[in-house]
């Protein structure tokens, strides 16, 4: 069934009103008709089964049939720090990362990061947010992941976490600590996990040292050298898998 | 250090001769110079440290310094059956799948497969093989994965395996059997594993039934609906991860 995240103000007690953009998608792209059922999410942890009622090019309304349980949203809040890179690759990580279960993306700027202009990132914010929303709707997430503005490494390392957070940084020279070793020997299931993936050139040795001094744990993603985008998706998937949250 | 797979006939007892294409890459692209060291692999399980000697545009030779241990090659032989699809997406799976540790790729044609012409696949064979070789050199594999010609589902289901093979088919309606449940309760570590990922539209119910009747085990890749290319990479990574082979 098609799923749509709607702004809370569009969701009433018994009826929903789809915004123009979504209405166009329903009417012209998906060609849904009155009587068709869809799922509406409020991005606040609720999902509703909705029967489409009135369908016009720019205005669609529906009747809420019932609230349905939210599935597809991991318990663990996983934040992925990923080196800012060329558009295609970065947007690909946003899409796949959302499918895999990442809850927040923070573009990272390090010494070897290819793309450095924070300004352009500002302009891309809207496009990035649309990519993760669409992916979240497609793969069955209960909430839309957040895409933050880029951070330089020092700010990223000292990120002000709301609560206790397990902070992992993938490092190709880490041969001892695999994700399983780390995640299966925790005193308790972490509520929040941060995973940092360096840029194409990797993090430099002293950047890794800075991370360790800031309390980040270096981890291995296996014996093979993964490209940054592969490391991001595989690392996120393995983390949630090990926490029983994939 | 740069790594190159060479045909066995180019690797002598004490010297190696790089084929024209590789020679061009070394000379013009990577701009390596005499005295530089590279790693040469024979795709037969051996790797050698080689010092470049004579470098010309179309002919490069090197001296074998010593044989070095092969790392980066999984013990488990994982065959990935993946629905034939549009070029970019398919080649992306070849590249990432090689990084993750897939040993053989078999393009699959099912009822809902988007791309169906086996002929075009014939022409692409060479290009596909170059993609996996380059990825294998980059990520540190010891062998080049094989890319087979496409198979229709019935042939794929009855594939003549050389030995006992655990055959898994990812299915979105499988809610009980996760990869961990399956892989952690095996009598012994499987030498060969096959993982089948359906096309964009998924496998039909009776295609799944055919698979089960042929002895394939349906498995879940988690609660979220992954796109086929994401399912292929995440499924392959989790399989090797669970077998301690990533």
Automatic annotation (TrEMBL), chains A, B:
Its EC number is 2.1.1.193. One of its GO terms (biological process) is methylation. Residues 74-237 form the Ribosomal RNA small subunit methyltransferase E methyltransferase domain. InterPro entries: Alpha/beta_knot_MTases (IPR029028), PUA-like_sf (IPR015947), RsmE (IPR006700), RsmE_MTase_dom (IPR046886), tRNA_m1G_MTases_N (IPR029026). Keywords: Cytoplasm, Methyltransferase, rRNA processing, S-adenosyl-L-methionine, Transferase. Pfam families: Methyltrans_RNA. It catalyses: uridine(1498) in 16S rRNA + S-adenosyl-L-methionine = N(3)-methyluridine(1498) in 16S rRNA + S-adenosyl-L-homocysteine + H(+). It is found in: Cytoplasm. It comes from the Bacteria. One of its GO terms (molecular function) is methyltransferase activity. Belongs to the RNA methyltransferase RsmE family. Specifically methylates the N3 position of the uracil ring of uridine 1498 (m3U1498) in 16S rRNA. Acts on the fully assembled 30S ribosomal subunit. PANTHER family: 16S RRNA (URACIL(1498)-N(3))-METHYLTRANSFERASE, RIBOSOMAL RNA SMALL SUBUNIT METHYLTRANSFERASE E. This is Ribosomal RNA small subunit methyltransferase E.
């Amino acid at each position: 069934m098609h799923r749509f995240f709607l702004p809370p103000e569009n969701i009433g007690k018994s009826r929903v009103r789809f915004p123009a953009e979504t209405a166009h998608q329903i009417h012209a792209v998906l060609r849904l008709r009155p009587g068709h059922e869809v799922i509406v999410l409020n991005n606040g942890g609720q999902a509703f089964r909705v029967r489409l009622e009135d369908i016009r090019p720019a205005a669609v309304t529906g009747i809420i049939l019932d609230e349905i349980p939210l599935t597809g949203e991991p318990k663990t809040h996983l934040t992925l720090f990923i080196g800012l890179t060329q558009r295609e690759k970065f947007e690909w990580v946003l899409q796949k990362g959302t499918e895999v279960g990442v809850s927040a993306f923070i573009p990272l700027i390090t010494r070897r990061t290819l793309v450095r202009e924070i300004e352009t990132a500002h302009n891309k914010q809207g496009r990035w947010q649309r990519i993760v929303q669409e992916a979240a709707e497609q793969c069955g997430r209960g909430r839309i992941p957040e895409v933050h503005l880029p951070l330089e490494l020092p700010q990223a390392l000292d990120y002000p976490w709301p609560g206790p957070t397990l902070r992992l940084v993938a490092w190709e020279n880490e041969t001892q600590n695999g994700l399983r070793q780390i995640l299966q020997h925790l005193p308790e299931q972490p509520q929040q996990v941060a995973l940092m993936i360096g840029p194409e050139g990797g993090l430099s040795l002293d950047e890794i040292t800075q991370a360790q001094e800031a309390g980040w744990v270096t981890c291995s993603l296996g014996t093979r050298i993964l490209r940054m985008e592969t490391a991001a998706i595989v690392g996120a998937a393995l983390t949630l898998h090990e926490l029983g949250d994939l």
